[in-house]
Structures are given as structure tokens and as C-alpha cells.
Amino acid sequence: MGGNYLPAFAKGAIAAIAELAPHLIGENPLQTDRINYLMDHFLYGHPYGKSPIDMACWDILGKATGMPLCDLLGGRFEGGLDLMCDPQGSIEELLAETAAFREKGYRRMSLKLGGDVAHDVSKMRAIFEHARPGEEYYADCNRGWTRDQALRVMRQIRDLDVYIEQPCSSYEDCLAVRHRTDHPMILDEIVDSPEMVMRIIADSAADLINIKISRVGGLTKARRARDMCVTAGIPMTIQDVGGTGIVQGAIYGLAQSTPKELRHSVYDPLSRGLNDAFTDAPFRMQGGVGVVEASDRPGLGQEPLPGSLGDPIAMYGGRD
Fold it and tell me: Looking at the structure, do residues 133 and 269 belong to the same domain, yes or no?
């Protein structure tokens, strides 16, 4: 979605890993909490740079014990994972993408909005003219509305059964909007740490919380955030900000270890047709009911294909 979507970018992740590597080499990767403590001690912030290290440690732990990720994260809960996709574009493109996703089996749709109030309202009404029973929709503008715009939109769609997702940029504006609407509220971009999840729960600021693995710093912290939501009885969508088969394995493993009644939907990072020629077992929706289950293979359940990743861009030695 571009460099202005989140405070994260590829070169920043490379720099963060280079900063952390000397402090982690020689540590036991099976000790995921200690690894996270060390990363936070030696580098403040930059969760997107810590997430791949943490994710790799969980994969190693799974392969060392012969256990799949969902078992490591608490155990496999019953039921399939309801996959979510994100139709976007003009009204015509939105309708076409929604129909295509529906044909593949998706039943959770995150409609990308944000900007012109009248146009956003028209998009939602066009979509709901063609909505099918059993489908659920999120009006997701990725922080794109000001407080007044959000309130204007919601006054005009009171009759639509839709979730409102991250309407405004700031926490305070989202909270103000929540207090003035009957639509269930989802918070997304501002959910950047377990500490923020604690604040959201304390303020009753959301009806549903999006947990994106790399945005909170990896699986270890995503699990902590998930467990807080479970304790508070708040449903979640389990996601990440992007990725291919490896990230897909992490998302599905975390989601499968979440109680079914609190696992509202699960993002499929391959839903937009990304080319995943990197791993041996990516799941691609081909049709049906939009439900999958996490892998029972050890770790993330994905193995890089030989030669698919190319030459390493950096190598790190021992401690100085």
C-alpha cells in the first residue's frame, strides 16, 4: 500500500536486523520470550524488523519439537478459518472484484474506502445491492476519514449491516466516532503493540480488533495481544501487513490456536493473486466456502523452495 501506510519499509527492516544480529548470535532460538526481550533491549521500536527474526525462532521451535505452530501457540481449536479478502478500486472494479472473490469462496470482504464521502457511500450501497446471505463486510478506509467525514458517512449508511474499520488516523478520533455510531467498530492501524490492546480494552474502544503479526513485532507479541483479547472476550481478525506462503503459515497458525467464537476472520495474504514461487505449500483459494485449516506440519508448515530466494543480501558473524 506504499510507504505512507505504516511506519515500516524494506530497507528499514534490513537495517534493523543488522543492528540486532550481533546481540542475538549465540542465543538459543527456542527461547522466544528471551529473544524478544533482547531485541527490545537493544533496539527501541521497529517491530517490522523484529518480526521476521521472531517468526524464524517459532519455526525453529516447531521443527525442533516436531510440533505445528498452532500447537505451540496454545493448541488447535476446532473449526475452519474464515478467510477475508480486500476488494478495492472504483465502484465498477469493486463490484467485479467482490464477485470474483465470492466465486472463489470468500465470505468476509474488507472494502477499501477513504476520501470522498459521497463516493464512499455510493460504493457501499452498490456492494450491498449485490450482497449474499452469509457475507460480512467491513468499511475499511485505512485512516482515510476525518472525524466529521466518518460521522457523515455513518449517518448515511445506518441501514447497512457493516463494520466500520479504522475510520480516522488518531485513537482519540476513532474513539469519538465509536461513541456516536451504532455500527460495530474495528481498530486496525493503531493496534501496534500488546500495550495498545490493553488500552483499547480498558477504554472499550472497539468491538473487534485486528492483530497484524509484524505490526506488533512478531508472533510472540501477537500471541500476547491475542490472549488479552481472549481474556476480555473481544473478537479478532488475525492478519499481517502482507507476505506470501511463509507469512500465510504464521497467520493461519496463530488463528487456529484462537478460540473459534473469537476468531472472526483471517486474512489471506495470497488473496490478491501474489506470485508465491518461494515455498512448497502455499494455500490458494480455488472455490468452495472460504474456509481453511492451519497446517499440521512442524513449525510454520512451509519450506522455501531450493533456489527460490536467490543469494543472501547480508550475512552476520559472531559477537564482536
Answer: yes
Q: What is the pTM of this model?
A: 0.93
Classify residue 142 as left (phi > 0), alpha (psi -120 to 50) or beta: left
Residue numbers of the domain that contains 37: 10-67
Q: Number of folded domains in the chain?
A: 2
Residue 88 lies in a domain: yes
Question: Can you give the CATH number for the domain in which 159 is found?
Answer: 3.20.20.120
Exactly one of 11, 50, 104, 112 is catalytic; which is it? 112
Catalytic residue among 50, 123, 212, 221: 212
Q: Is 112 a catalytic residue?
A: yes
Catalytic, 11? Answer no
Distance of alpha carbon 275 from its chain centroid, rounded? 19
Residue 159 has, within 13 A of its CA and on its CB side, a CA count of: 5
pLDDT digits (tens, 9 = 90+) for 30-85: 999 999 999 999 999 999 999 999 999 999 999 999 999 999 999 999 999 999 99
Kindly state whether residues 235 and 107 are assigned to the same domain. yes
